[in-house]
Amino acid sequence: MACDGRQPTPLHVFGQLPRLSSLYTQVCVCFPLEGNSSREKVVTRIRRGYRRLACWVPWIADAVEFDHSDGLYKIIPTPSSAPFSDSGSAFRVSERRLEDRLPSYQAIREAGFPFSLLREEDLASRRTLPNGTGAGLEPLTCAYGSLNAEREAAIFEVQVNLVDGGCLLVFSAQHNCMDMVAMSEAIRLFFEACRDNGTEDAGQDTMEFGRLDRWGTSLARHSGQSTVRGQGTSPEPAPVSTSKPAAQPVVLSSVDPTTGDTPAATWSYIVFSNDSHTQLKAQAMRDLPDHAKTDFVSTDDVICAILWQNITHARTVRLASSVTTSDGAVTSTTSFERLVDSRPYLGLPGRHPGNFVHKVTTTLSISEVVDQTLGYLASCLRNTLSETDRIEREVRASAEVLRESLRLRAGAGPPERPKPSSMNVKMSSWAKEKCYEFDFGCCLGKPEAVRRPAFEAWEGLAFLMPKRIDGEIAAAVCLREEDTERLKADENFAKWVRWVG
């Protein structure tokens, strides 16, 4: 259905993954806020800001739907009056008062903005994972009832959570449409739209972000040679199945092969101060092996390396020198998976909207990870990222596999991702995103903390939060409870971090 001349727009090929269609990413941006008048002013400004943003970037207020006529996920325009009318001002913005449910903002601050006080069922309009997926999941409820059940897949929503002395602003972004790079840009533009000096007219960068033709409709149907570094033109797409793909189960945690149970896991924030990761990087540079392929490692490399090493050490206490994977096989290796931005490999601008995450993996023996120097591990991680030709081939091959799955799709979609080993770590780094520099203006200013709210435990999953202006980086890590306790009690690791939980 067209809306004010806008037509449904197919997502790019990486937005056609069925398993992304019910997933959301949340970001919680925390501000101190005093006084009822300030609260009312902030809520009014947020509603107005969203309306302004929807004028600049019309698809931001739209939704994603599966089109049975051609078998593609598409951005479906919403009536233009909805985000702008008085009744429609809450169309993608909601408000929740949590003074009776959560402690004061000061108490949350003193606790370090921990997962235990920032839960998606309290703070988010959507849940991260769809209802009914994974082992033992029960639907969560919030102010709306069951969070994602039988609701349209809105692209971008905002929930204003008011606690005593503060405002916890939570953004929820639909995962077919946005990875963290795109979501960070959407949040930046939202803050710009909320400011008093925000112009009613969109700037050039905003107009570029808002162009629907930037979604790359050619990518939605064919990939490979057409978009990667100017490699020419791809042929016309093959016929596409129009069956809606079946929902893909989301694996939350390793299953104990002896009992069939999913071990209890928990989320924790582990904070690296600027001094801490600066000293760790200096140590890693001193420890680089003579045969290293690179004389450079990044701060991300070093933080990932020390987390991998100490998490693996905590796990080996439980599992000795080898572990059993979910299919019963025995392994003595561990892998560190990093989710990287594939835009450069597709010849796309750095802030291009969409989900362009690609996984690169470094696999070493458990003994190497536990016993080698920090510099050795960091250089191994850097070497994997430096293999740009291989990564480009993988990105292009992934696009081709997805294109073929669209052509042949008969209700199944691409293969399910393998269940994670109980020895692996999967890291998504948001450290480069400039969220702490975003200025809301009136009453709020710049954020005091940026966190991901707690969602269902997913053993081995980790995130690096955006770097604070003073250089502090918070790592979000999900581990089995017994491994968490061992890591927390590790005196050598404790020298470098502040445990928030």
Automatic annotation (TrEMBL):
<feature type="region of interest" description="Disordered">
    <location>
        <begin position="221"/>
        <end position="247"/>
    </location>
</feature>
<keyword id="KW-0808">Transferase</keyword>
<dbReference type="GO" id="GO:0016740">
    <property type="term" value="F:transferase activity"/>
</dbReference>
<dbReference type="InterPro" id="IPR051283">
    <property type="entry name" value="Sec_Metabolite_Acyltrans"/>
</dbReference>
<dbReference type="Pfam" id="PF22664">
    <property type="entry name" value="TRI-like_N"/>
</dbReference>
<feature type="compositionally biased region" description="Polar residues">
    <location>
        <begin position="223"/>
        <end position="245"/>
    </location>
</feature>
<dbReference type="InterPro" id="IPR023213">
    <property type="entry name" value="CAT-like_dom_sf"/>
</dbReference>
<protein>
    <submittedName>
        <fullName>Trichothecene 3-O-acetyltransferase</fullName>
    </submittedName>
</protein>
<dbReference type="InterPro" id="IPR054710">
    <property type="entry name" value="Tri101-like_N"/>
</dbReference>
<feature type="domain" description="Trichothecene 3-O-acetyltransferase-like N-terminal">
    <location>
        <begin position="23"/>
        <end position="194"/>
    </location>
</feature>
